[in-house]
Design a protein that fits this description.
The complex is a heterodimer of chains A (115) and B (111). Chain A is an all-beta fold and 115 residues long. In chain A, 0% of the residues lie in helices and 53% in strands. Chain A has strands at residues 4-7, 10-13, 19-25, 32-38, 44-51, 57-58, 67-73, 76-81, 90-97, 104-106, 110-114. Chain A is globular, with a radius of gyration of 13 Å. Chain B is mostly beta strands. Chain B has no helices and eleven strands. In chain B, the strands form two sheets. In chain B, strands 2, 4, 5, 9, 10 and 11 form a six-stranded mixed beta sheet that branches. In chain B, strand 7 (60-65) and strand 8 (70-75) form a beta hairpin. Classes of the chains: A mainly beta (115), B mainly beta (111). The A-B interface holds A 32, 34, 36, 41-46, 49, 91, 93, 95, 97, 102, 104, 106-109, 111 and B 4, 8, 41-46, 87, 96-104.
Chain lengths: 115, 111
């Protein structure tokens, strides 16, 4: 069964609204989760590292005030896309490493379409 | 220069063909290396890790050349089900476990 879940799996929203995406670790606790974005025919681009109990670390060029990350617990990280624009339409995926084994688990992804 | 570079393809091959993918990475301090497979609109799935000595898993063989900063994946006797995008991935272990993904190489295996 799935080890990491994401919700929603797809969402359509109007320009200017905010969308929250959840990433849950189902089988183990995770102090760190990673958020990626993937545009069609392009690579997964790391957006930020979500850290439980502290602020997220954002990659260069990623606006922290636009992409709000909250690592609410050891099993949940949320990414909120604020004031979404059509150019934010993308495939958002979280990655959760298992600390004890260094195995990497990906969420199934969330496809966001902003109209 | 991109941190991880791949030929985007697409590679169109007949069933049974042997196909090779190449990848180069720019940071010589990179610690570990992987090939992932990604099907359309799905999350990436680990295909295999890549070790300096080279490693094989069934029809798949991966090679790493640290001196040249080059990684390869060879698929023998390709199947229709091998059609996917293959992602070269580098783990920058000295940066908190960040995985850096290549653009991916698209493979289409035809009957």
């Amino acid at each position: 069964g799935a080890v990491v879940s994401q919700h929603p799996s797809w969402v359509i929203c109007k320009s200017g609204t905010s969308v929250k995406i959840e990433c849950r670790s189902l089988d183990f606790q995770a102090t760190t989760m990673f958020w990626y974005r993937q545009f069609p025919k392009q690579s997964l681009m790391l957006m930020a590292t979500s850290n439980e109990g502290s602020k997220a670390t954002y990659e260069q060029g990623v606006e922290k005030d636009k992409f709000l990350i909250n690592h609410a617990s050891l099993t949940l990280s949320t990414l909120t896309v604020t004031s979404a624009h059509p150019e934010d339409s993308s495939f958002y995926i979280c990655r959760v490493p298992r600390d004890s084994t260094y195995e990497q688990y990906f969420g199934p992804g969330t496809r966001l379409t902003v109209t | 220069r991109k941190e991880v570079e791949q030929d985007p393809g697409p590679f169109n091959v007949p069933e049974g063909a042997t196909v090779a993918f190449n990848c180069t990475y720019s940071n010589s301090a990179s610690q570990s290396f992987f090939w992932y497979r990604q099907d359309c609109r799905k999350e990436p799935k680990l295909l295999m890790s890549v070790y300096s000595s080279g490693n094989e898993d069934g029809r798949f063989t991966a090679q790493l050349n640290r001196a040249s900063q080059y990684i390869s994946l060879l698929i023998r006797d390709s199947k229709l089900s091998d059609s996917a995008t293959y992602l070269c991935v580098v783990n920058m272990n000295n940066q908190g476990g960040k995985l850096i993904f290549g653009q991916g190489t698209e493979l289409s295996v035809k009957p």
